[in-house]
Amino acid sequence: METTKTVKKTVETTVPTVVFNDESLVEILLDIDMSTFAEVTAITEPKMRKTDNPFFGRVEKISKMNVNFGGIYKNAVEKKMEKEGIEGNYEPAPLKWGQHYRDSRVIIEHKGNYYAQLRPLRADYVSYRWAENLKEMTEQEIQEMKIFFPQKKEGSRQPAENKVIIRTIKIKNIREIRMDKTRYQRGI
Predict the structure, then answer these.
(1) CB 176 within 8 A of CB 185
(2) For residue 125, what is the enclosing H or E element?
(3) How many domains does the chain have?
(4) Has residue 25 been placed in a domain?
């Protein structure tokens, strides 16, 4: 009897790295003119109630997620409606704050700050750490902190059951983006 052994080959590929700052990242994202998939790593301050909260202002959230930049929100909602058998057209409301910068589908400007508008598809990694020493929080600390998180709201205007979620992330909070076979990394 003859046996065959399957061997998996690991192929190492070199991905070009582009170092960015806030201004250059805005320019990179302004070039997106169609739906583009990417992986984004961001460090943000989690939203939470302030009153009697020992965690407020002391914690950072690290997120690594697969996202869609530049997709047309109206089309995404209508596609979800169609999948769920809901007829009709969807008209999105205008932005509640800020405006699309230079007619970009991705960049929003508000009071001199720039934000990336994206559609999160999947979170690959989420962790919390103490801002003062960058030490990862314990599971118990995270559970205690989550008591102060606001309740999640969904897009109430969408008739589809599975809502299309859009997020805006401040440009300064983005640490890395991988898209179009390139790694974009924040400089020091």
Answers:
(1) yes
(2) strand 113-130
(3) 1
(4) no
Three-state SS at 155:
coil
Q: What are phi and psi of 110, to 5 degrees?
A: -150, 115
Burial string for 129-163 (b: 16+ CB within 10 Å, else e) reads eeeeeeeebeeeebeebeebeeeeeeeeebebeee
Query: Is the pLDDT score of 94 beyond 80?
Result: yes
Q: How far apart are the first and last CA of the chain?
A: 60
Q: Is residue 158 part of a domain?
A: yes
pLDDT by residue (tens digit) across 120-142? Answer: 999 999 999 999 999 999 999 99
Residue 123 tokens read as 């979170």
State both tokens at 56: 């407020």
Is residue 49 assigned to a domain? yes
| pLDDT per position as a tens digit, 25-44 | 999 999 999 999 999 999 99
Dihedrals phi, psi of 140, to nearest 5 degrees: -65, -45
Tokens 């997106």 belong to which residue?
Answer: 32
Prediction pTM value: 0.85
Residue 182 lies in a domain: yes
Q: Which domain holds residue 44?
A: 32-186
